[in-house]
Amino acid sequence: MAQKAGHTKPGTTGGLKAPARRRRFLEYKSDIPLSWTIALGVLVWLLVFGLWELAVYRQWAIEILLPGPGKVLGALYTLFAEEGFIVDVAYSVGRIALSFTLACMVAVPLGILMGSFKAVEAFFNPLVSSWRYLPAPSFIPLLLMWLGAGEAEKIALLFIGVVWFLITLIMDHTKSVPKDLIHTSVTLGGNRLQVLWTVVVPASLPGILVAMRQMLAVSWTYLVIAEIVAANAGIGAMMMRAKRFIHVDQIMAGIIVIGVLGLLFDFSLRWVHRRVFPYLDETTD
């Protein structure tokens, strides 16, 4: 049956489809094409390196204190090809991996218990909250006296730098588990251990992994501090050796390596998050 005059279907104009809405560059909470993501990510680094090269070309700083990108990349090649820098990188990655694993072994169960039970939170939170405000580098003199200048001191410093914040973040993510899930499980006959293991922990895991990503970045920021004290190997140790001979290009190369390694670790945890919790990345039309 033909439509009556003056009436059109929703979304049409005079029997024709309405033109598609034009995508704007800035749109609130809207996904952008992958090509845009890649292009914008490359553009920001081109701008950074361009400004860096311009600063060197215009001599805005003394060249020995601000070498150009080409010289820094050349120093990076020399470090890996001729000076065994890969060994330093391996030491640093090992320290980060060990210290962060130990921090997670403490923070994950304790944070889950503090977020689940008010009595546990009331007992531990005054201690955890206090330690969060203590700067980790201030413990270096004590750690040197207690543990010496070996690996234990460096692992302990990296551990202290992240564990207290990680506990708090995991506690907050655990608290965000909907109470209806817990009440329903209790109504169905679940005891405290069953509810904790089958409801609270699975519901908290996505947030826990996000908290681990955030604090792993902080762990990398403490790496150089941990390695500048009596270290014979590591990225920070290499940077301190370069400082003695004013090899600024090697120092900047070390900074770049730390940034790249941190980015790789972050991408790895993001990949794990997508693989383990794919339903969180699904979008609805």
Major sheet description: 2 strands, antiparallel
Q: What structural category characterises the helix and strand content?
A: mainly alpha
Give the CATH class: Mainly Alpha
Counted up, domains total 1
Q: Strand order across the biggest sheet?
A: 1-2
Number of alpha- plus pi-helical segments = 11
Oligomer, anyone?
A: single chain
State the fourth-level CATH superfamily: MetI-like
Helix content: over 70%
Give, in order, the helices and strands. Answer: EEHHHHHHHHHHH
Average pLDDT over all residues: 86
The fold-level CATH name is: MetI-like fold
How widely separated are the two ends?
31 Å
Shape: flat
Tell me what the CATH architecture is.
Answer: Orthogonal Bundle
> What is the C-alpha radius of gyration, as a whole number of Å?
26 Å
Strand content: under 5%
Number of strands: 2
Low-confidence stretches: 1-6
